[in-house]
Amino acid sequence: MKIQANKAAAFVASPDPSMRAVLVYGPDRGLARERLDALTVAVAGDVNDPFRVTEMAAGALKDDPARLADEAAAQSLMGGRRVVRLMDAGDAVAGAVESVLSGAGDALVLVLAGELGPRSALRKVFEGAQAAAALPCYVDDGLALEQVVRQTLQPHGMSVGRDAMDWLLGHLGGDRLLTRAELDKLVTYKGEGGEISLAEVVACIGDTAALGMDDLALAVADGDDATAQRVLDRLLRSGTGPVQVLRGVSRHFLRLHVAAGAVAEGKSPDQAVSALKPPVMFKIRSRVVAQVDRWRGARLGQALDVLLEAEADCKGFGPSPDVVCARALLRLAQGARSGARAGRR
């Protein structure tokens, strides 16, 4: 079965005892790890319990595919239900999971995977079995990210001003664990209680993965494909998924689209950028103004279509997602340069 997004929190807090296995997967590795740990605690009480929790890498099944079923059938020496955690899994372990579901034992097998397309063999096993569940973990954005911010700050008696919240929504959300770490840093900086201001947020939130994403989006919109490729390589090496990258760049182009709409209504590019929420940081403001002037409304719509199509292709069975992502960004960077040449004529 597949767990819907609005039921994920309740499922993680109290998983159905009839579940033999749960697949936790998706582009947000931080959220996936957070949910994996929460499921472990819900069943075994402690992630680090050596008697009730066993963790193994998916690669260990290559030479011994029966090992997963053997671990699932083993009994705890101290009593209680065991948890077996299979890390960094892919479609190659689908058969091993099927053996668990048809075998003996009552351990809960938790499988952690990255992004899996709808035709993934591993997803199909979990989504099609009565005693298994697939739990997708997508990047926080919009209302979901705002809820994470409020839930994290509320126990400290803190509220967030609208401008500050808009800034946080524009600079967090790429990874749940990273988001929480940045918010914890903000709590320490602010101290308990009170409303967090925009100035405090800007002063505290540092060079996170979201800021690296900003560097990439700016380079693409500038037409600087060499810098874009270097930043993209760094993000991919650090574990940022191609879909997450494409969505980060899309957010920047959506902001350019909003500004371009204001220009079409009679505002100057400078005025249009000044009106954006969350506000554009001073050090990159001139670049964004130039990008609004370079990218016209129709071309921005085409750019967003390219990004959306690339995201869909990342979930298919064509070229690797890394290649699809790089090609799309290179195409946009080339488009930025052609737009600049057209503007000079």
From TrEMBL:
Keywords, sorted A to Z: DNA replication, DNA-directed DNA polymerase, Nucleotidyltransferase, Transferase
SUPFAM superfamilies: P-loop containing nucleoside triphosphate hydrolases (SSF52540), post-AAA+ oligomerization domain-like (SSF48019)
Reaction(s) catalysed by this chain's protein: DNA(n) + a 2'-deoxyribonucleoside 5'-triphosphate = DNA(n+1) + diphosphate
Enzyme class: transferase
This protein's name: DNA-directed DNA polymerase
Matching InterPro entries: DNA_pol3_clamp-load_cplx_C, DNA_polIII_delta, P-loop_NTPase
GO terms under biological process: DNA-templated DNA replication
Top-level taxon of origin: Bacteria
PANTHER family linked: DNA POLYMERASE III SUBUNIT DELTA (PTHR34388:SF1)
EC number(s) stated in the UniProt entry for this protein: 2.7.7.7
